[in-house]
Amino acid sequence: xxxxxxxxxxxxxxxxxxxxxxxxxxxxxxxxxxxxxxxxxxxxxxxxxxxxxxxxxxxxxxxxxxxxxxxxxxxxxxxxxxxxxxxxxxxxxxxxxxxxxxxxxxxxxxxxxxxxxxxxxxxxxxxxxxxxxxxxxxxxxxxxxxxxxxxxxxxxxxxxxxxxxxxxxxxxxxxxxxx
Length: 179
Known about the structure:
Blueprint: H1 7-10, H2 20-44, H3 59-63, E1 66-78, E2 85-96, H4 100-109, H5 111-123, H6 127-131, H7 136-149, E3 151-154, E4 159-162, E5 166-176
Antiparallel strand pairs: 1-2, 2-5, 3-4
Helix pairs in contact: 5-7
């Protein structure tokens, strides 16, 4: 019987199940770790309340900001090309915030005069001024006319000065008057 192999040796090793002990040890270790993290977070307490402060910019910086105001939105005629062309126009002015209310009031008070000034500029403009992509020449002429109308008194210099920084021609669409 010594020649017969042992039954235990011939049978392949039995498959074992899941390593339950290892899984339990890892689960306990993770639970302890999570509880320690939560304990230290609770021990640290909640974050302090934050109160926002004002911006660093002071009032003078806010007053010097540039704002846009609608100057006029109208249709003007130009006949210098030999035919009547109507230009649907929208013009804005850029002013400092400190003069914004004054400029609004002045635009309302001098609406007819400003409208007449712009109409005369457009009426007398050669066709090349309308061909410019930025309408820079027309904007410069309108600014020059507005510098005479829209003024603010500067207390530091004891004189009136123009308040319009820039003229923006937002829309200038040509239409033939006689189709």
